[in-house]
Write a structure and sequence with these properties.
690 residues; 8-stranded parallel barrel; 6-stranded antiparallel β-sheet; 14 helices
Length: 690
C-alpha cells in the first residue's frame, strides 16, 4: 500500500499523529534533498514506501515537511538526507545513511549495527528506526508535576536498570520503568521525596566500548551519550517494538506521583553519542553537522571536545537552543517530569565559539520559560574543558551539585585535622558560595556520593580504587577519593573493622541529613551497596553496578537508621529551612545556631588539629532544640551540653550504638540531665529537647 501525501506543516517538528494521518517535519539548513522512509515493522529490512520531499513544495525556509494521509501510530520511519559533502566546511551529508528523527518520540535498535553507521555505504538494514507514537492518547487520571518546594526535597539518585536488575529484586520486569513501579513501596518507606534518574533519554547500550580482563564485553551502562532527546530509552521498556516508550515512562511517573515522589531526569545536552569524526552518523551529523556541533575553526572536519566525550553540542545556536528548550518543555508538559539535572551543565554557558557567556541564551530561556517555571533545575556546574562554576552558575534559581560540600564532609569523617570552619559553612548551606549573588541554601544540592565514584560503603572500605574490571589497567577513575578503609582494604571478616564501617556510614548520612540545602542519597547506600572498590563503573552492566537486594536484609540496621534520619529531617523545619541562619534570637535568648567544640561556645575555628564540631539549633519557638556533637577523633571525648531555661534533653541518636539503640523513638528518648556527655571516637550524638 502506498500512502497519499500532502504538503504538510513546518511546525511542530517531529512526527505528529493527527486525525487523518501523520505530519512529519525536520530541520536542515544545508540539505539539498530529504527522503522519508516508511516501514511496517521495526525489523523490516526494506521500507514499503519512500517519500521524496519536494524542496519547492515541502520546504518552508529550512524546515522540510510532509503530511502522510491515513498513516497510523505504531508504524516505523527514518530519513535519508543529502547535501554538500565537504567536511572542510563542516558538512557530512550521506544519503545512504538512514537517520533518526531528532524529535522522534521513540525508536527501536533491534537491527542496529553501530559499525555500519561509522563507515561509507548504506546502513539501511542495520539502522535504528523511529516508531510513530500518538502522545495525545493517554489517561493521566488528573496527574500533574508535584511542585514540592526545593527545601522539602530529599533526592534519591538511581539507575533505572541497576535498581531492579540485581539479586533479590523480586520484580516481574527487572531493569525497566515497570520494575521501578514495583519498588515504590520501598521508596515510600525509605522516605525520599524524589528520584533522580540517570539518563533515560535513548542511548546506545549495545556498542562494545571495551573488554574486561576476562574478555567480557563492556558497554555504556550509565547512558551519558544521548541518541534521541525526546525518546525514553527503549532498553528500559518491556515492549519498545510496539511503541510503548511513552506509555511505560508515563505509567512510572504517574505511579510515583501517586505516592508523593517526584521524578528528576539526569539530562545530557552537552554532547551526543555521534562522537568525533570517526563516530557513527545517527541523526544530527546527517541533518546538519555544522549547525549542531562545535567544530575546529581551521579544520572543520574535526570536533571541539569541551566535554571529554568526542564532540560538543552547540547549545547556544538558535536551532539546538530551540531543540533543548522544546525538549525540556515536552518532558514537563507531556511526561509530567518534575525536574532536571544537567550533566556538565557549564557547556550550556558556552557561545558558538566555545567561550563562556555572562548571559547564555539557552540557560536563561530555561530559567524564564513559563512551562518550566515550577520545574527543579540542577546543574553539574563544571565541564571537562576547565569551566568550574560552583556558586556562579548563570541564573538565579539553578541549584548545583555542591562538590565542595562532598569534599569537606569526606575529609571530616575520614578524620583529617582542621577544616572545621569550612565544614560548618557547608552544613549551613554554603553561604560563601550562594549568598553574595542573592541565592539560598536550596541552591546547594548536598551529596557525599553519586553514581560517579565510590559507593558510601566503598568510601569506608577502600583506600584506593579497584577498577581492573574496566579493562584499563586501573588507570581510569580519579585517584583522590578522600576515602579510608577503616583498617582493611576491601571485604574482611574483622568484626571491629566492619562495625567501624557501619558507624562511619551512619556518620556520613547523619551529617548529610542535618545540613541546610538539598540532600541527595545514592541508591543502595542505605543498604551498604558495594561496587567492589570500582569508582568508575560506567561500563559495568552487571552485578558490580546492580543493587543487590539481599543487602537490605543483611544491613537492615543501616536501612532502619536512614529511615529514622529522614523522618527526623521531615519533622524539624529548622533542618530544612530555605533561608540562611539569621541573627535573630528566640525568647530564651538563643540564636538559630550556636557553634561549639567540646566546650560550649568555643568551636576552635583556628585549631588546625581539631576533629570535632558541635552546634545547637533552635526552631525559634522557644521549645524545640537540637544539640549535635560530632567527634571524628579516634578516642572518646567529653562534650558540653547547653542549659536552656525550661528545656530538658533526650538522647535522640548515637551512631556509636548498635541498632535499635542508635536512634530513639521521639516519644521515649533516654533523658540526659548532666551538663556534659561522652561522645565515642568517630561518632555523632544528637540530643533533642523533650
Amino acid at each position: 500500500m502506498k500512502y497519499k501525501v500532502q504538503r504538510g506543516c513546518p511546525h511542530p517538528l517531529g512526527a505528529r499523529v493527527c486525525e487523518n494521518g501523520v505530519n512529519f517535519s525536520v530541520f536542515s539548513q544545508s540539505a539539498t534533498s530529504v527522503c522519508l522512509y516508511l516501514f511496517n515493522e521495526h525489523d523490516d529490512p526494506e521500507p514499503f514506501q519512500i517519500i521524496e520531499l519536494d524542496p519547492k513544495k515541502n520546504r518552508t525556509f529550512y524546515f522540510w515537511h510532509v503530511f502522510v494521509e491515513g498513516l497510523k501510530e505504531g508504524m516505523h520511519y527514518g530519513y535519508s538526507v543529502d547535501g554538500p559533502r565537504d567536511t572542510g566546511l563542516g558538512h557530512r551529508f550521506d544519503h545512504e545513511k538512514l537517520l533518526l528523527d531528532p524529535y522522534g518520540f521513540g525508536s527501536t535498535d533491534n537491527l542496529w549495527v553501530r559499525g555500519n553507521a561509522c563507515v561509507k555505504g548504506s546502513n539501511l538494514t542495520t539502522a535504528m528506526r523511529n516508531v510513530i507514537i500518538d502522545i495525545e492518547n493517554y489517561d493521566w487520571e488528573g496527574d500533574r508535576p508535584l511542585n514540592r518546594p526545593m527545601n522539602e526535597t530529599i533526592i534519591y539518585e538511581m539507575h533505572v536498570k541497576g535498581f531492579t536488575a540485581g539479586k533479590g529484586a523480586k520484580v516481574r520486569n527487572p531493569g525497566t520503568y515497570k520494575g521501578i513501579i514495583e519498588k515504590i513501596p520501598y521508596l515510600k518507606k525509605l522516605g525520599i521525596t524524589a528520584v533522580e534518574l540517570l539518563p533515560v533519554m535513548q542511548f546506545d547500550d549495545k556498542a562494545v566500548i571495551g573488554h574486561s580482563p576476562d574478555g567480557e564485553p563492556l558497554t555504556n551502562y550509565w547512558g551519558y551519550s544521548t541518541i534521541s532527546f525526546f525518546s525514553p530509552h527503549p532498553g528500559y521498556c518491556v515492549s519498545p517494538e510496539e511503541g510503548e516508550h511513552i506509555k511505560e515512562f508515563r505509567d512510572m511517573v504517574k505511579a510515583l506521583h501517586k505516592e508523593g515522589i517526584e521524578v528528576i531526569m539526569d539530562v545530557v545536552f552537552n554532547h551526543t553519542d555521534e562522537g568525533n569524526h570517526k563516530g557513527p552518523m545517527i541523526n544530527f551529523k546527517g541533518f546538519d553537522n555544522s549547525v549542531y556541533y562545535h567544530l575546529v575553526e581551521s579544520e572543520k572536519q574535526f570536533y571541539m571536545d569541551y566535554t571529554g566525550c568526542g564532540n560538543t553540542f552547540k547549545c547556544n545556536h538558535p536551532i539546538p537552543e530551540k531543540l533543548i528548550r522544546e525538549c525540556l518543555e515536552f518532558w514537563v508538559e507531556e511526561m509530567h517530569v518534575d525536574g532536571f539535572r544537567f550533566d556538565e551543565g557549564s557547556i550550556l554557558s558556552r557561545d558558538e565559539n566555545g567561550k563562556p557567556l555572562k548571559f547564555p541564551p539557552i540557560l536563561w530561556q530555561i530559567e524564564l520559560s513559563e512551562a518550566l517555571a515550577d520545574t527543579k533545575l540542577i546543574a553539574e556546574a563544571w565541564d571537562a574543558a576547565g569551566l568550574y562554576q560552583i556558586g556562579s552558575f548563570p541564573g538565579i534559581r539553578w541549584a548545583e551539585w555542591n562538590g565542595k560540600y562532598r569534599d569537606a564532609v569526606r575529609r571530616f569523617v575520614k578524620g583529617d585535622a582542621g577544616g572545621i570552619g569550612e565544614l560548618a559553612n557547608r552544613m549551613s548551606g554554603s553561604s560563601d558560595l550562594y549568598s553574595p549573588s542573592g541565592r539560598m541554601p536550596v541552591n546547594s544540592v548536598n551529596f557525599i556520593t553519586c553514581h560517579d565514584g565510590f559507593t558510601l560503603y566503598d568510601l569506608t572500605a577502600y583506600d584506593s580504587k579497584h577498577n581492573h574490571a574496566n579493562g584499563e589497567d586501573n588507570r581510569d577513575g580519579i585517584d583522590e577519593n578522600l576515602s579510608w578503609n577503616c583498617g582493611a582494604e576491601g571485604e574482611t571478616d574483622d568484626e571491629a573493622v566492619n562495625s567501624l564501617r557501619k558507624r562511619q556510614i551512619k556518620n556520613f548520612l547523619t551529617i548529610l541529613l542535618i545540613s541546610k540545602g538539598v540532600p541527595m542519597i545514592t541508591a543502595g547506600d542505605e543498604i551498604c551497596r558495594t561496587q567492589q572498590g570500582n569508582n568508575n563503573a560506567y561500563c559495568q552492566d552487571n552485578e558490580i553496578s546492580w543493587t543487590d537486594w539481599t543487602f537490605a536484609e543483611k544491613n537492615a540496621d543501616i536501612l532502619e537508621y536512614v529511615q529514622k534520619l529522614i523522618k527526623m529531617r521531615k519533622r524539624f523545619h529548622a533542618l530544612r529551612s530555605a533561608e540562611f541562619f539569621s541573627d535573630g534570637k528566640d525568647k530564651n535568648g538563643m540564636p538559630e545556631v550556636t557553634w561549639h567544640g567540646t566546650e560550649l561556645n568555643r568551636p576552635n575555628w583556628d585549631d588546625e588539629g581539631s576533629r570535632v564540631l558541635a552546634f545547637t539549633l533552635s526552631a525559634m519557638d522557644g521549645k524545640t532544640y537540637l544539640h549535635v556533637m560530632m567527634n571524628m577523633y579516634w578516642e572518646p571525648l567529653r562534650f558540653g551540653v547547653p542549659a536552656i531555661k525550661g528545656i530538658k534533653w533526650g538522647l535522640l541518636a548515637d551512631t556509636a550504638q548498635n541498632s535499635p539503640d542508635d536512634f530513639s523513638d521521639f516519644k521515649s528518648m533516654p533523658s540526659v540531665e548532666a551538663d556534659s556527655v561522652t561522645v565515642q571516637g568517630r561518632s555523632i550524638v544528637i540530643l533533642l529537647s523533650n
